[in-house]
Structure formats: C-alpha cells, structure tokens
Amino acid sequence: MSDNSVSNYESESSQNTDSPKKRKRGQRHPEKYIRNVNKNKKLKGLEYRTLKCFERLSIDDGLQMLTRFRSHDTKNEQDICAQSFIEAQPVKRNRSIIDLDCSRSKAKSVTFKYYGNKNGKRVEVCKNALCQILTVTRGEINRLCALQSLNQIP
C-alpha cells in the first residue's frame, strides 16, 4: 500500500510541473517593450505609434503654422492663435490623492492635447514640438493651457 501511495505522489508531482511557472519578481519581458513592439510592427508593415512628432509634420507645414502665428500683430492675438492648437479634454481616470496637506494637492481636472496642421488636417504632436514650431517657451504654453482650462481668453 505504501508503494501505491508513493507512485500516486510521483504522478501528482509530475502533473504539477506541466503547469506554467509563476512569474518571478524582476523578470524582464523585452518583447513587451514599446520600442520592440513598434520595431516588430514596422518590420511586418503594420501600423505603429511613433514617438517622433517632427516626422509627422513637414518643414513646410511648420513654416505655415509659424507664419500664421507671427502674422498677428498683438500678443493677445498670437495667444489666441496658439490656443487654437491646444485642446483641453477631461481626465479619463481620476486618481485619489493621499497627502497630509490636502490644501496644496489638487486633483487634475483636464489634460491637454497639442495639434499641428498638415495639409489642412489636425495632427497630434507633443508639447515640445508645438513649442519649437511656434518658437515659444513651455511656460507660455503652460499659461495658455491654464487659461484654457478656466475657459478664459488671453
């Protein structure tokens, strides 16, 4: 009877080794890295999201945006033009903020998307690309975003 119980134990242990191993902490999965996923999609000819915003807009498109921006005489008109390239959207996922001093921490209410014009169509670009195309600082864009979130015109 003891021989039979040993064989049952061995058969159970052999069945447990067939199951997939539990993921260890710190184990890497380079096939899931965004750069590698994009590289594989590019090799297969599939669509992928690029992080290079300047490749989305040509030099001519950037010059058209800049001339439109600089054609306005006053700073307020230029600010309104720059605000046309910025769109405020509500936050998709609200996170709770745990802080001892709740008066300083404020939940984010809107997020901003930045756009450029390419052949009359709006193309999403990063904040840095918009700053460099319009030759303005990030602080000016931040000020325009704050005004836009309050629904104010500069």
Briefly summarize what is shown.
Residues 1-32 are annotated as: Disordered. This protein has 154 residues and is an alpha+beta fold.
Q: Can you characterise this structure?
A:
The chain is α+β, with helices and mostly antiparallel strands. The chain has a domain at 54-93 and 109-149. The chain is 44% helix and 12% strand. It has 6 helices and 3 strands; from the N terminus they run H-H-H-H-E-E-E-H-H. It has helices at residues 2-17, 34-44, 59-70, 75-83, 127-134, 138-149, and strands at residues 86-90, 110-118, 121-125. Strands 1-2-3 form a 3-stranded antiparallel sheet. The N and C termini lie far apart (89 Å). The relative contact order is 0.12.
Could you name the key traits of this structure?
154 residues; 44% helix; single chain; alpha+beta
Tell me the major beta sheet: 3 strands, antiparallel
Order of helices and strands: HHHHEEEHH
Strands of the widest sheet, in order across it, are 1-2-3
- Amino- and carboxy-terminal Cα gap: 89 Å
Q: Which term fits the overall shape?
A: flat
Proportion of residues in helical segments: 40-55%
What value does the Rg take, in angstroms?
27 Å
Give me the count of strands: 3
| Average of the residue pLDDT scores | 81
Task: State which percent range the strand residues make up.
Answer: 5-15%
Q: With helices defined by DSSP (H or I, 4 residues minimum), what is the helix count?
A: 6
Secondary-structure blueprint:
Blueprint lengths: L1 H16 L16 H11 L14 H12 L4 H9 L2 E5 L19 E9 L2 E5 L1 H8 L3 H12 L5
Antiparallel strand pairs: 1-2, 2-3
